[in-house]
Design brief:
flat; Rossmann fold; 6 domains; 7-stranded mixed sheet; single chain; 6-stranded parallel sheet; alpha/beta; 1049 residues
Length: 1049
């Protein structure tokens, strides 16, 4: 706390740290040993609580003062960041760090650029040598912001990068890499070094550190023993591709206990990056074999190098029982730092004899920090993108850096023109997207004029950029002359040069350039797209007039975020408010619950109509104008259900918690307590000990409290009693399991007998059920014929008219229409009405892959003159897909029609995807915190954060893969509404649930749709009332009720 207080003061004053303040900062040891402080305060324990519950509550109370102070010092984002870093923020004993440095120096390190890849507060930075022939320039990479800030104050001469190593790349290698890598059974996504997410974080960091070391340089890292002992040699084999193991020292189990609060077994690895052409060293360290060690009977995996070099094990190699079975450990009282120094000296002497020492630093002189750049596609130029340097010469991005492009002089001028066109097009689209003011602005007009003039100047000398079949190579004059000299009738392909078109055609950022025109194959001409003449990307501009009262009611809600304001309706219709109310009398009601504000008919006469009727009767007693509300609501009231018609399942959330407590007391548990935090988050206390809990209503292995909790969570069918066999394997005790399940069945039977036995309780619960569930009425939309301006003589059926009205009235809609119900015509009518009323500017229709031609044909049958743009299966290649999206962006279309596969492949901007990931992880973390705050049992903070880290890594992998080289993103197209046919294809959205069978692992395409809708909600208005989509499917629920929850999301 002293270190954090000091940092806050330094940041407040903006000054450098004094010596005393640096001493306070240096005492910081990270978040890794403090996971309990991030757990919400434990609930007070009840008289029936067991020993573990009492101890947890006492332990939590002791942490309340520092927890509260920490909350004051950290923002919400910093709190989440710190909590996330409890996974691996374990720092190093300075004596150990000094010993590692000594080993590096004995291996021949003579100075230069040095990286600490997970630098924490900078222990290794602070101990870097000052007497090397080449001055040492330290760079630290630290993911946690508070810790990185402390290290900057401690070591102002070092370069500290606040980022994860997986997010960072460097322009040049380091002369050495040294440090203590994070340990864990989770992964971080890294495009280059962990793109398949197969490397745990410690192996990932070791591999990348070795890759960042110059040939002949030393990598010295403290890492988990799993780097060497892991059964799968794949990670070690990847390291061996880059360098050799000079030596490894295994530290005793307690080496990090004092500074990091952990007794994990670690190794110090000394690796040397191999220079090109050098022979590979000893490969025995690649394999790990099963060994029988003292302490356990079952074998454990130990690296062959460790077995072959017992002199480098600082203690006795034994086995112990760990959280996942037997594991090797090192037992001994030997001083770890002193032992490491001695072992490293022997390793260095052997390395000098075998040529595995460090080669001298190539460039002596003053050390300078190396330039770092972010490693993900979210942050730097697309590979292969073209540009112009300061001298106007074409460049191409290679490995994230623009380099000069070799272009034949005959093609240089044309390529410069094309690059200029591309740059101006991208700038215009970006400006349109970022300009919040509606309509054209002077800045946009100027940019559009410059682009149009440049485009036409290019066209005067060259064919349209979008004309198909343009040559990718040509025969230069010198090649023709050479062919003539050598008597050849044709110029060989290898003598030809690339055309300017071939370069721009391969540029992933040039897609929008090809969308400046539409090429007509029949006439052989190109037509300028709308973007060259007027704005195509802008916020929705809603109409200010309406032709009918129905249109006015829909538009008024869009104008006012879902609220129906009769003043707005009057303005849209061009009449006074009284006349507007008269014309809309059949379309809306004044709601007494909202001080007389208007509600559209379908919304007012749906939902909880019992509650609305009671309020209407109260309102009518004071204001007779509400009697029309009473009459309308009475006509839609559902009939009451009696107790015999109601299923009161144990665990049903509508039954009050007090009834569950009363039931447990009926069973004899006088101190029973039940809590419910929503969903499956239940807690039961006071039924855990005694014969009643362990014999009559439970078993020795599963108490009545455990069984009741499983029943409430709907998990009683998965009750299991397990044990560990002599080999450490988990086995099911079937006899004990069957006994526990039988007791659970008896509890359920007792509940069924008890719940309706008391008349007063029966009447009360029936009233609750009817008021809660049997009070809901679905919206009922008008089925009378719609006018549908612009349509053919197509006649919609009544349910289709109602569905189109629903699409116009609601932010989202579900068309759960079976085959033969005319779903396609309904979707088409909905799209065109959204366009006609101005409720959508550029809707997209997402359809099954095989239905493109059929649906396009049916669309034109209903609306013959509709302006449609469709992407077919043959357009799914990267270039053709990008050009299609460019046309979508530049044109004014009634509908953009694309297949599921095409939609799935069109990426969103990386920043949009990152925002989605942050939101989803925050939501998940909040769910888990809510459970803890309610006193629920939960996994440890480290387990939760480990799971979240794995989810985040998978999502980041998807982001990077989708964004890399995309060139054009969904946001660039102006699409603002989705009509998704066969939406059940997107039902597998990640859902976490404790109910057996209810959880969903999640699919990429479902996540993609959810992400797109989230983006549209943010850009189209408020998140809750933004108009974004209609989902259409004949099978909204196919396998699980979870699919209904997914549709709601």
């Amino acid at each position: 706390m002293r270190a954090l207080d000091t940092l806050v003061e330094l940041e407040r004053t903006g000054r450098a740290a004094t010596a005393d303040e640096q001493e306070a900062l240096a005492a910081w040891s990270g978040w890794g040993a403090l996971p309990l402080i991030f757990e919400p305060p434990a609930a007070p324990y009840t008289p029936g609580a067991d020993q573990a519950e009492r101890e947890a509550a006492i332990r939590s109370m002791a942490l309340d003062p520092p927890r509260q102070r920490l909350r004051e010092l950290l923002s919400e984002a910093e709190w989440a960041d710190a909590r996330r870093n409890t996974l691996n923020a374990h720092y190093t004993d300075p004596a150990l760090a000094a010993a590692v440095w000594e080993g590096v120096r004995q291996l021949g390190f003579d100075g230069g650029h040095v990286l600490e890849p997970s630098s924490g507060s900078g222990i290794f930075i602070g101990l870097s040598p000052a007497d090397t022939p080449v001055p040492v320039a330290m760079t630290g990479v630290e993911v946690e912001g508070r810790t990185a800030a402390m290290s900057r104050h401690l070591y102002p001469d070092a370069t500290i990068i606040t980022a994860g190593l997986e997010e960072t790349a460097f322009t040049d290698p380091f002369d050495a890499v040294i440090g203590n890598v994070p340990f864990g059974r989770y992964q971080r996504y890294d495009r280059v070094y962990n793109s398949d997410l197969k490397l745990s974080i410690h192996d990932h960091f070791v591999l990348k550190s070795l890759a960042l070391t110059r040939p002949g340089g030393i990598t010295a890292l403290i890492t988990s023993r799993f780097t060497l002992d892991g059964k799968d040699p794949a990670a070690r084999e990847r390291m061996y591709e880059l360098g050799d193991l000079v030596g490894a020292v295994r530290l005793p189990a307690g080496a990090h206990k004092a500074t990091a609060g952990t007794d994990v077994v670690t190794d110090v690895l000394f690796l040397r990056r191999r220079a090109e052409g050098e022979p590979r060293g000893d490969s025995r360290w690649l394999t790990a074999t099963e060994q029988i060690l003292p302490g356990r009977e079952e074998p454990v995996s130990v690296n062959d190098y460790v077995i072959a070099h017992p002199q480098y094990v600082l203690g006795e190699l034994q086995a112990r029982l760990g959280p996942f079975g037997s594991e090797p450990t090192v037992v001994g009282e030997r001083d770890a730092a002193a032992g490491l120094t001695e072992a490293a000296a022997v390793i260095a002497a052997t390395a000098r004899e075998s040529g595995l020492h460090a080669t001298p630093t190539a460039t002596p002189g003053e050390g300078q920090p190396l330039r770092a750049r972010p490693a993900l596609a979210t942050e730097y130029l697309s590979e292969g993108a073209l540009g112009l340097d300061g001298q106007g010469h074409p460049t191409i991005v290679e490995d994230g850096t623009p380099v000069r492009l070799e272009v034949h002089p005959d093609q240089r001028e044309r390529l410069v023109q094309l690059i200029g066109l591309k740059t101006r097009t991208l700038a215009l689209y970006e400006a349109e997207a970022n300009t919040e003011q509606a309509g054209e602005t002077p800045q946009l007009t100027e940019m559009r004029t410059v682009l149009r003039d440049a485009y036409r100047a290019y066209r005067r000398k060259n064919p349209p950029p979008g004309k198909p079949g343009q040559r990718r190579t040509f025969a230069p004059k010198e090649a023709k002359e050479r062919a003539a000299r050598e008597g050849l009738t044709a110029v060989p392909d290898q003598w030809k040069a690339r055309t300017a078109f071939s370069f721009i055609d391969d540029d992933p950022d040039a897609s929008l350039l090809f969308g400046l025109e539409t090429w007509d194959e029949r006439t052989g001409t190109a037509t300028e797209q709308k973007v060259l003449h007027e704005r195509v990307l802008e916020p929705r501009r809603l109409p200010e007039t309406a032709k009918t009262p129905e249109d006015a009611v829909a538009l008024a809600q869009e104008w006012d975020g879902g609220r129906l304001d009769m003043t707005r309706v009057a303005s849209l219709l061009g009449v006074d408010e009284n006349e507007a109310a008269r014309r809309c009398g059949h379309l809306a009601f004044r709601d007494p619950a909202q001080n007389g504000f208007w509600e559209p008919r379908h919304r007012y006469l749906s939902g909880n109509v019992r509650e609305k009727l009671a309020l209407a009767r109260t309102g009518a007693a004071e204001d007779p104008s509400y009697t029309v509300n009473v009459s309308a609501l009475e006509r839609v009231q559902p009939q009451d259900l009696n107790p015999a018609e109601i299923k009161a399942r144990c665990g049903a959330p509508w039954i009050p918690v007090e009834d569950y407590q009363a039931f447990l007391k009926h069973l004899g548990f006088e101190h029973a307590e039940v809590r419910h935090a929503g969903g499956t988050m239940w807690e039961v206390r006071g039924a855990h000990v005694g014969d009643l809990a362990r014999s009559e209503w439970g078993t020795a292995e599963r108490s009545a409290q455990d069984l009741m909790l499983s029943i409430l969570r709907q998990a009683d069918s998965t009750i299991q009693v397990t044990y560990r066999d002599n080999e450490g394997n988990t086995r099911v005790n079937q006899v004990a399991t069957d006994a526990a399940r039988e007791k659970a069945r008896l509890i359920r039977e007792a509940w069924d007998d008890w719940i309706w036995a008391d008349k007063a309780r029966s009447e009360r619960l029936a009233d609750i059920y009817n008021e809660t569930f049997n009070a809901l009425v679905m919206p009922d939309y008008d089925t009378s014929p719609l006018q549908l301006p612009g349509s053919s003589d197509w006649t919609m059926r009544p349910h289709q008219n109602a569905a189109i009205r629903r699409i116009l009235s609601e932010p989202t809609a579900l068309l759960a229409h079976v085959v033969g119900a005319g779903k396609t015509a309904t979707m088409v009518g909905g799209i065109m009405e959204l366009r006609r009323t101005g409720l959508a500017r550029k809707p997209a229709m997402v359809i099954p892959n095989h239905m493109l031609r059929q649906i396009t044909r049916e669309f034109r049958e209903v609306y013959p003159n509709a302006k449609l743009l469709a992407i077919s299966a043959s357009d799914l290649g990267v270039k053709r897909r990008a050009k299609f999206m460019a046309r979508a962006a530049g044109g004014d279309w009634d509908a953009v029609i694309m297949t599921h596969e095409a939609f799935n492949r069109i990426p969103l901007r990386p920043e949009t995807q990152i925002d989605y990931i942050d939101t989803e992880l925050s939501s998940l973390r909040q769910q888990l915190d809510d459970a803890a705050a309610a006193g629920m049992e939960q996994r440890t903070i480290k387990q939760i954060e480990s799971d979240l880290a794995a989810i985040e890594a998978r999502m980041l992998k998807q982001v990077d893969e989708s964004a890399n080289g995309a060139g054009i993103f969904l946001e660039d197209t102006g699409i603002d509404y989705l009509m998704v046919d066969e939406a059940h294809a997107y039902k597998n959205l990640r859902t976490i649930s404790a109910i057996p069978g209810a959880g969903i692992q999640g699919s990429v395409k479902a996540t993609k749709l959810h992400m797109v809708l989230g983006h549209l909600r943010k850009t189209n208005g408020s998140d809750d009332n933004a108009r974004v989509c209609t989902l259409a499917t004949g099978t909204p629920i196919a396998n699980s009720v979870t699919e209904a929850y997914v549709l709601k999301r």
